[in-house]
Amino acid sequence: MATSSPCCPPSAVDDPRAAAVSVRVTGDPLDAGAAIAAVTRPHAGGIGVFVGTTRDSFNGREVTRLEYEAFTPLAERALARIGQAAARRYGLAAVAVWHRVGVVGVGEASVVIATSATHRREAMEAAAAVIAAVKARAPIWKQEWYAGDDRAWKENCECAHALPSVPAAALRGEGDHIDVAAWLGEQSPADVARVGSAAGSAHRPVEPAAAPAAAAPAAAAAPGLSEA
Question: Is the Cβ–Cβ distance between 76 and 5 less than 8 Å?
């Protein structure tokens, strides 16, 4: 059963202005306004937001809902490290990385990313980078349900085999180590957006029996945001 972890410690507790990282993996509805409030800071003049919602069709088929599953301890740890790495790379004031599990109806939010920074460019670029990393690294999977109660597991197509431009150094993950910074360091914001767009349109269904095991740390082979 997934739980909610509302906040993870900032990466540099000695600095009162160090970025705070808020992480949630929860079955409750996500509130984008609450995420914005969580990252609002007096010294941050820009906030970047991404909200992923369930759309009503896929490849001409009517979608009725999505259903997400997560191995919560690893998911929370991955989201926290992604947020911390983005905060370091983009100089963020705060970042919220919230993901819903369970049934998510059409039009409802499954993921909310909010980032704040001194200037809007860093905030917006960070939000794009964080969602790309979440889709690539977080141990969270989904089933897509269609009209008539047919369903299909959806593979995460932002994994290593779908990112030929990712350097080998960025794909070396050991244990629960998250390393996407090497990749982000070599990609422009346009490249990050292109990868996310291409992967999002390339999802292919697999049989339910082929769904990933809940505790599969094999996701460490895909790009993630680094602790370094």
Answer: yes
